């Protein structure tokens, strides 16, 4: 996997810096310019448009996979389709998940892939 980097866009004296910096750095190593703000991806708009209370009304406040309720003072994770478009009215809302289930469910998983994974696990268990 390629290292994550950002290109400095600072212009000084009519010339762009253009230095490639590691993503973890907030300041350009060459010219001292600040890293530009990261763009929000389209699928994340569902998290901004629909507050947590809306998700609870729609899905109930328990994990959609294992049924666990949130610990006191905590919230469940709002699971959404990362391939959803910004103009999708529901924004790819799928439900609420506990920490464990949310982190075990890959963001790229499809129904077809999950069916194949289930068949694989069943074959291995027998």
Can you characterise this structure?
The chain is α+β, with helices and mostly antiparallel strands and 126 residues long. The chain folds into two domains: 1-38; 42-125, 3-Layer(aba) Sandwich (His-Me finger endonuclease fold), CATH 3.40.1800. The chain has helices spanning 45-49, 52-59, 99-104, 111-125; strands at residues 5-7, 11-12, 15-16, 20-22, 77-80, 93-97. A two-stranded antiparallel ribbon has the order 1-4. It has a two-stranded antiparallel sheet with strand order 2-3. The protein is elongated and about 65 Å long. The two termini are 35 Å apart. The mean pLDDT is 86.
Concise account of the structure shown:
The protein has four helices and six strands.
